[in-house]
Design brief:
The protein contains three helices and twelve strands. The chain has 218 residues and is an alpha+beta fold. The chain has a five-stranded antiparallel sheet.
Length: 218
């Protein structure tokens, strides 16, 4: 007789495997994504600017003085769209706007498609001065000011590469926070790699083979 493994047993087995309990962010699986630490899963470092220290700056991102000003607002958080972590960002409206940036190496003249998941919530909504933005080389390609409380929602943008472009995420709100996760920037010409397609086909074939094997044992 063949015993069926319970779901609880499978989950406990997965948790026992180092690293299995913390799945990667969905942006890590996007072919051609230029954004490093796109899901804020790759750890943090400490930064001190203008006399203020923030010990939760996500690796591969560079903060401005506004980000270091309020570590309680600006930090890597356990509220995530996928994976285990996301980003909390947003000083009070009267304070300097906190920002994180990183330089993307791309191809001049190519069109790049970007996306990220944004959520607004926490202490309450209705802030008429709230703002969240994504910028390329200082120019806004995404601007949000809807402060109705909502969960993670995907937003998109696009731009033409220059060869080296600075991506910035910034935002202010009072009294709540903005949350961001799964940041993707990739060329519009990127297609799935043949190896990925082959692996997907192999997995599908394995599923059907497993089902046929199970029927023979039942």
């Amino acid at each position: 007789m063949v015993r069926r493994l319970s779901l609880a047993f499978f989950v406990s087995l997965c948790v026992a495997i180092p690293g299995f309990a913390d799945p990667p962010s969905i942006c890590d699986a996007v072919a051609g994504n230029l954004v490093a630490n796109c899901g804020f899963e790759a750890g943090v470092y400490s930064s001190t600017l203008s006399g203020n220290t923030n010990t939760s700056v996500p690796n591969s991102w560079t903060p401005n003085a506004g980000y270091d000003l309020e570590p309680g607002f600006n930090h890597v958080t356990g509220y995530a769209n996928s994976g285990s972590y996301g980003l909390s960002i947003g000083n009070f409206d009267y304070q300097p706007v906190p920002a994180l940036s990183q330089t993307l190496t791309d191809i001049a003249g190519d069109t790049y498609n970007g996306s990220l998941y944004v959520s607004y919530g926490g202490a309450g909504g209705g802030d008429t001065g709230a703002y969240f933005g994504a910028l390329i080389n200082g120019t806004a390609v995404l601007a949000l000011n809807d402060t109705t409380l909502y969960g993670y929602t995907q937003y998109t943008f696009s731009f033409v590469g220059t060869g080296s472009d600075v991506l910035t995420i910034e935002g202010n709100t009072n009294p709540s926070e903005w949350y961001a996760d799964d940041v993707v920037v990739k060329s519009s010409s990127v297609v799935p790699e043949p190896a990925s397609v082959f692996l997907f086909g192999t997995l599908i074939a394995g599923v059907f083979a497993s089902r046929r094997f199970s029927r023979r044992l039942s």
